Amino acid sequence: MKVADILRIKGDDVTTVPSWTSMAEAVQLLSGPPAIGALVVSDDGRGRLDGIVSERDVVRRLAADGPSLLERTVGDVMVHLPESCTPEDTLAEVMATMTRSRHRHLPVVVGGRIRGLISIGDVVRQRLAEMTTETGVLRDIYLASR
């Protein structure tokens, strides 16, 4: 299974903001509706990946900066040039990247442009579906051989 398969199921909509967006506005976008876990940062307006800011980034900076965080910009908080993946990456590769980098969201990039965003939830959901199918096949093979 590949990242492209996840994007076919969930779609390729990505909420992007420029780095000069206020954190107050970013928090509003994250809290929804719909609630989302991360905003991809693209300053050129055409999908170049400049960074990402997640709920986790907001919480950690809120603990450090307090309420003044809302007066800052996304560029002050975002992860610059974050880990990313391509539609051709496998779920195993994506899981390894997420584990190594300790990020729960990965922008999907093709030719330097954002083509989607996947989360650890998307990967786990897809992996569980695969495991359910594999279990069914193995059960059927076992029952047929009796």
Describe the SSE topology.
Blueprint: H1 3-10, E1 16-17, H2 23-31, E2 38-41, E3 51-54, H3 55-65, H4 74-77, E4 79-80, H5 91-101, E5 105-110, E6 113-119, H6 120-144
Parallel strand pairs: 1-2
Antiparallel strand pairs: 2-3, 3-4, 5-6
InterPro entries: CBS_dom, CBS_dom_sf, CBSX3_CBS_dom, Diverse_CBS-Domain
Keywords: CBS domain
Protein name: CBS domain protein
SSE series = HEHEEHHEHEEH
DSSP E strands, number: 6
Class from helix and strand fractions: alpha+beta
Helix content, binned percent? 40-55%
Number of helices: 6
Q: Main sheet, how many strands, which sense, barrel?
A: 4 strands, mixed
Give the CATH superfamily: CBS-domain
Percent strand equals 15-25%
Kindly report how far apart the N and C termini lie.
31 Å
- Radius of gyration (CA) equals 18 Å
Query: Can you tell me the CATH class?
Result: Alpha Beta
Indicate the overall shape.
elongated
CATH topology: CBS-domain
| Low-confidence region ranges | none
Average pLDDT value? 92
Strand arrangement across the biggest beta sheet: 1-2-3-4
Could you say what the CATH architecture is? Answer: Roll
Domain CBS: 8-68, 78-133
Protein name: CBS domain protein
Keywords: CBS domain
Pfam families: CBS
Report a brief summary of the structure.
The protein is of the alpha+beta class. The protein contains six helices and six strands; from the N terminus they run αβαββααβαββα.
